[in-house]
TrEMBL record:
It comes from Peribacillus deserti. Keywords: Membrane, Transmembrane, Transmembrane helix. The chain crosses the membrane at residues 34-55, 75-104, 116-140, 160-180, 192-214. This is Yip1 domain-containing protein.
Length: 220
């Protein structure tokens, strides 16, 4: 059976998506959707930079830089956002995909199809974060969809707030979706799959929090 990949249907009807992947002997439409998802990630991150989200460090130097230096700084920042969008998509699709392929012993193309949905959910999270930043002035650690809001009542330590800000309902949905898919596609024990997923996501959140804490997060 040839199963045609549909991103929106995969997000809206995961049970049908899982059945289709489990039964499929081949997948169609995967390559073009992967390319489009990578382009969408690059565009979304670049748009975030164009709107000035995360550019506080540059704006703070406006009085100390000449007009040409300031424009160069903005161009560098936008270039960083573009690269970040590409890197974000590549890591989720291919790096994590290869990691799961080796560890869970699953078909790589089927993992890529799952990760395509994961990337799409992540981009929805990014879009909502952008809207909150533009219209409500809320940063990642202050998003009402993340644990960062709770963190502000517990501590003022920025690295911890950045870490909690990475844990959102979208990230929890991603872990749940991956577990739901992988336990059907892999013969590994469900407990092992869930443990690896949680540890990998925690590591990813820590890395993002560290980059934000040392002021490299403006490129992410």
């Amino acid at each position: 059976m040839v199963y045609r990949i549909r991103v929106l249907k995969g997000m809206a009807e995961p049970s049908i998506f899982r059945y289709g992947l489990s039964s499929a002997e081949a997948l169609s439409g995967l390559r073009i959707r992967v390319i489009l998802a990578i382009l969408a990630s690059a565009i979304l991150f670049t748009l975030s930079g164009f709107l000035g989200i995360g550019s506080e460090s540059i704006s703070g130097q406006i009085t100390r830089l000449s007009p040409s230096e300031f424009e160069t700084s903005k161009l560098v920042f936008l270039s960083g956002q573009l690269l970040s969008g590409l890197l974000y998509a590549v890591i989720i699709l291919f790096f994590f995909g290869l990691f799961f392929h080796v560890l869970f012993d699953m078909d790589y193309k089927k993992i890529l199809a799952v990760q395509l949905i994961v990337l799409s959910i992540g981009l929805v999270n990014k879009l909502i974060s952008m809207l909150l930043a533009v219209f409500a002035g809320l940063g990642t650690s202050a998003s009402p969809f993340s644990f960062g809001v709770i963190g502000h009542y517990v501590t003022d330590f920025e690295p911890v707030l950045f870490f909690l800000g990475q844990i959102s309902i979208f990230q929890i949905a991603i872990i749940a979706f991956q577990f739901y898919m992988f336990r059907s596609l892999s013969e590994k024990k469900p407990g092992f799959i869930l443990l690896i997923l949680i540890l990998l996501h925690i590591l990813f959140w820590i890395i993002q929090a560290v980059l934000l804490a040392i002021n490299l997060g403006k490129f992410l």
